[in-house]
Amino acid sequence: MHIAMWSGPRNLSTAMMYSFGARADFDVVDEPFYGAYLALTGSDHPMRVETMASMECDPARVAQSMALRHDRHVYSKQMTHHMVPGIDRSWFPAARHVFLIRHPARVVASYAAKREKPVLEDLGFVQQAEIFEEVCALGQSPVVMDTHDIRRDSEKTLQQLCDALGLAWDSAMLRWPAGGHSADGVWAEHWYGAVHRSTCFSGAEGDLPLLEPDMIKIAEAGLPSYEALYALKI
Predict the structure, then answer these.
(1) Which of 14, 69, 172, 190 is most buried per CB count within 10 Å?
(2) How many Å apart are CA 19 and CA 13, to the nearest integer?
(3) Angle at 92 between CA 87 and CA 94, to 5 degrees
(4) Angle, vertex CA 30, rays to CA 25 and CA 35, nearest 5
């Protein structure tokens, strides 16, 4: 089974990759289309040069790798905003798709602390809802899960996810070694500091963060897409 986990940035996606990476029956892949996205868009991301030098940047070749069959289960951490025009989606039917959502205010606050002046397109809310509809049009019933539920009760929520995917529950998903994973992309140096210090999912989140006026506008623009998927979460 290939599980494609779709989220925007700052959505607990790396911790989820570590969770699946802790299972003995899974290999994990970290943002396989990142290099292709940077090559196609010219976006000035932190560690852009290092990222592109470290991975395949031809979107067709990356898409081919996503469609390959494997002897073991594969979990690919996919960023919704990476799926820009020019990136082949013909591999979608070969994967099981899961959508990891987080309240836009939390995403905006976390992202802005790592990269100045984000715009709506950087955060993937609208793209996530569009990809969800595309997967549904293929006849699949994708799974939606909210990071708030994972933080509040990791074991219950991950068990529900495994049930929905037809996977046996493995308690190894609740813990991982500190210091990162061998599958981390080179960009981990900039983005993954907190999760590298972790060994499990953090506890329940508190109140929504207060945002600056320009960040409030971005969060509000992402809210309809988030709420549409929230209504379908496990």
Answers:
(1) 14
(2) 10
(3) 135
(4) 150
CA dihedral angle for residue 72, residue 89, residue 231, residue 204, rounded to 10 degrees: 50
Overall number of domains in the chain: 1
Apex CA 155: angle with CA 151 and CA 161, to 5°?
Answer: 90
Q: 125: Cβ–Cβ under 8 A, 6 or more apart, which residues? A: 8, 80, 104, 107, 221, 222, 223, 225, 226
Measured distance CA(224)–CA(143) in Å, rounded: 18
Nearest to 79 by CA among 17, 19, 22: 17
Residue 30: strand pairing partners:
77
Q: Kindly list the distances between the CA atom of residue 52 and the CA atoms of 45, 88, 136, in Å, as whole numbers in the listed order.
A: 11, 18, 32
What is the C-alpha to C-alpha distance for residues 44 and 51, in angstroms, rounded to an integer? 11
Q: What is the extent of the structural domain holding 26? A: 2-230
Instruction: Give the three-state DSSP class for 6.
Output: strand
Could you give the CA distance from residue 101 to residue 90 in angstroms, rounded to a whole number? Answer: 24
**What is the pLDDT tens value at each position of the chain, 234 positions in all?**
999 999 998 889 999 999 999 999 999 999 999 999 999 999 988 899 999 999 999 999 999 999 987 889 999 999 999 999 989 999 999 999 999 999 999 999 888 777 777 889 889 899 999 999 999 999 999 999 999 999 999 999 999 999 999 999 999 999 999 999 999 999 999 889 989 999 999 999 899 989 888 889 999 999 999 999 999 999
CATH number at residue 86: 3.40.50.300
